[in-house]
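Re: [ENG-882] Designed sequences occasionally contain unexpected residues at chain ends

Forwarding the minimal case from QA. Structure tokens:
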């Protein structure tokens, strides 16, 4: 198997195993949108390296600096990821929860921040009148995950941290979604990692040579 394929499969397989393990853990997980985006960026980093990275590889710099150009390209990639994260609107992401099970724990968490918080189940929103903030739940169709977003664009980072802190214990008591998607994701990731491991065991010299050819242009 060609080294670029191994390079693409390794982080992607690890990402799929991570996402599958979250579902198999048996309880929903709440994280920030920034962490979710960063994890995805790490997962597709191998694909980015063998795709756009190969297409736009600076050959002149590679000839002059050799393998030292790769840390610079990796730094550029993660700077671009950081730029995307900073420009995205803040949100929270919940994994492993049923589509209709988010509003009640979200309301309970919001009431810890604003006692006058109220829920509109028909529209899937929660309002915090004292803070002037309106939240909405955006489920991912065909997936056991959902985003929590604010209609307002000027919500402070302190509010999102407080909401994350209050929401985690509320979500912990909610029954998790069926683990079937987690099984599929975990198996797919393990197959990818298994292919990489098999190549390392069966053809270590070819993998090492492929790495050298990849680094030295």
């Amino acid at each position: 198997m060609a080294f670029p394929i191994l390079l693409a499969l390794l982080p992607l397989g690890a990402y799929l195993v991570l996402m599958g393990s979250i579902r198999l853990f048996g309880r929903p997980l709440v994280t920030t949108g920034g962490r979710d985006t960063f994890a995805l960026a790490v997962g597709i980093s191998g694909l980015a390296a063998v795709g756009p990275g190969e297409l736009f590889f600076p050959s002149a710099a590679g000839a002059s600096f050799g393998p030292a150009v790769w840390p610079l390209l990796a730094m550029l990639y993660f700077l671009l990821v950081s730029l995307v994260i900073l420009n995205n609107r803040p949100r929270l992401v919940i994994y492993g929860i049923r589509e209709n099970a988010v509003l009640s724990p979200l309301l309970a968490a919001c009431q810890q921040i604003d006692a006058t918080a109220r829920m509109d189940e028909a529209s899937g929103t929660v309002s915090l009148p004292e803070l002037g903030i309106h939240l909405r739940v955006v489920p991912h169709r065909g997936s056991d995950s959902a985003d929590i977003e604010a209609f307002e664009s000027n919500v402070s980072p302190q509010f999102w941290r407080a909401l994350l802190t209050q929401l985690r214990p509320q979500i912990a008591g909610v029954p998790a979604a069926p683990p079937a998607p987690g099984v599929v994701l975990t198996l797919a990731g393990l197959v990818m990692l298994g292919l990489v491991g098999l190549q390392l065991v069966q053809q270590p010299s070819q993998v090492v040579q492929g790495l050298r050819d990849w680094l030295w242009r």
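QA comment: On inspection the terminal residues look reasonable. Residues 1-89+178-217 form one domain. Proposing we downgrade this to a documentation issue.
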